[in-house]
Inverse folding.
């Protein structure tokens, strides 16, 4: 708790548990095959958050994770875990850090095949000098929690993938670390086991209050996170809060705000009729790749704006990715389209949003049209005019277009002295240019 002076109340200001500033990681530094995998990441992760690092293969997700783990020394920038830089630790301190502060699970489980499940789980405690009875008790407790107590005495290699990963989760938590890292933890599992493991991790986050940083390239897991960090080409591209979850980090994400996020902010999620753009994304974006998601975001934005109709939406969904579409199957496209239709029909906000856009479009087009007319009129005028005259001319053209001024009113305003609010153009040219303008308007000039 921190005392807020100004308000004179106690308020909770969260400290980041993981912080990086301009973090760079370069593989093979100084060699001919030197490769910079992280280009200066700056990020904050708060205690209790569930963060997903999301991005295509090879973008640097695992690199960032191992840098946080203390296993990959940065080539630049700073990294702090609970305020400390793990790369300044002695060997012993690092061991303690990696056993007690931070746990990790991998895609490939990494169980030791010659040890029983229980020994695998309790192993990290052996190094901590914990007595066997206590180790086993704690190990069994975790195995029970993750539904794998019945395989405690089997060897790791006899388990199914889902069981192995649950054992690995138990092992990672044996020393009760505050932070759990997970590198594609369900990448090797069938979809049912994957969901079970993901649900367990959610529980570890919610009930166990662990901070989780999970790497995935699979969009269907994004709804689990408080915030999703989109990683691309070794850079943290954007940081997107999941509006479905109460945020631990209070202010919104930083970085590039996409149209879809703007929409999500325009239409809060807790209104009964609120447009759930992010929910739409979450709902629609199962089983598709990072690149497809970006296309889908654009497509959803277009249908919300009324720039594409139901058929266009469906067709673009089915269209091959290489042809500019999202590239999903017809069956999925059908489901997405139906769901989208339902959401649009239910949402007054979409209608309101569309109307606002239409008005804005009309205003923009109007402004462009006026400018075109003004340019044409002045091209026909041999004299010089100043900025005030120019603004008045544009005003008058706008008034003439909207019918506020009639033809002779326009001519009068052209002729009227500048001091009196007119344009100060002599009688001959006022008459000529007015007639010319009428002609241009009647023709609906295009250029
Ligand atoms: P991701 O986990 O997002 O798939 P990684 O962090 O594993 O990506 O890798 C990021 C980039 O760094 C990739 O281009 C990869 O080839 C490169 N890379 C990863 N590990 C090494 C390494 N040990 N040596 C050289 N390059 C590496
Ligand atoms: Mg990886």
């Amino acid at each position: 708790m921190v005392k807020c002076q100004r308000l004179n109340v106690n308020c909770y200001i969260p400290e980041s548990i993981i912080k990086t500033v301009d973090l760079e990681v370069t593989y093979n530094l100084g060699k001919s095959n030197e490769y910079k995998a992280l280009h200066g990441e700056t990020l904050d992760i708060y205690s209790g958050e569930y963060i997903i690092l999301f991005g295509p293969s090879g973008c640097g997700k695992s690199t960032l994770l191992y840098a946080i783990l203390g296993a990959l020394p940065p080539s630049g920038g700073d990294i702090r875990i609970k305020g400390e830089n793990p790369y300044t630790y002695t060997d012993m301190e690092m061991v303690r850090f990696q056993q007690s502060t931070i746990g990790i699970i991998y895609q490939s489980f990494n169980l030791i095949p010659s040890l029983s499940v229980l020994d695998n789980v309790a192993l990290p405690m052996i190094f901590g000098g914990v007595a066997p009875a206590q180790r086993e008790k704690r190990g069994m407790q975790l195995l029970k929690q993750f539904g794998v107590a019945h395989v405690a005495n089997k060897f790791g290699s006899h388990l199914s993938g889902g069981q192995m990963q649950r054992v690995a989760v138990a092992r990672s938590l044996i020393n009760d670390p505050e932070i759990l890292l997970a590198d594609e933890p369900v990448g090797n599992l069938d979809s049912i086991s994957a969901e079970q493991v993901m649900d367990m991790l959610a529980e570890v986050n919610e009930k166990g209050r662990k901070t989780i940083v999970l790497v995935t390239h699979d969009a269907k897991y994004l709804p689990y996170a408080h915030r999703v960090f989109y990683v691309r080409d070794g850079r943290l591209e954007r940081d997107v809060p999941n509006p479905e979850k109460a945020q631990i980090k209070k202010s919104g994400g930083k970085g590039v705000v996409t149209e879809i996020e703007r929409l999500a902010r325009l239409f809060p999620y807790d209104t009964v009729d609120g447009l759930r753009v992010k929910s739409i994304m979450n709902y629609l974006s199962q089983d598709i790749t990072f690149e497809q998601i970006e296309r889908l975001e654009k497509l959803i934005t277009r249908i919300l704006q009324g720039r594409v109709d139901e058929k266009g939406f469906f067709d673009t969904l089915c269209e091959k990715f290489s042809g500019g579409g999202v590239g999903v199957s017809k069956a999925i496209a059908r489901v997405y389209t139906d769901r989208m239709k339902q959401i649009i029909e239910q949402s007054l906000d979409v209608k309101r949003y569309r109307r606002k856009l239409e008005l804005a479009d009309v205003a923009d087009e109007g402004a462009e049209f006026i400018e075109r007319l003004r340019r044409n009129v002045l091209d026909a005028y041999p004299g010089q005019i100043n900025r005030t005259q120019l603004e008045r001319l544009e005003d008058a053209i706008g008034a003439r277009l909207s019918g506020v001024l009639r033809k002779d009113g326009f001519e009068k305003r052209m002729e009227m002295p500048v001091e009196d609010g007119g344009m100060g153009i002599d009688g001959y040219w006022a008459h000529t240019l007015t007639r010319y303008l009428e002609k241009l308007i009647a023709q609906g000039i295009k250029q």
About this structure: Residues 365-443 form one domain. Confidence is low (pLDDT under 50) at residues 1-13, 252-278. The chain has 15 helices and eleven strands.
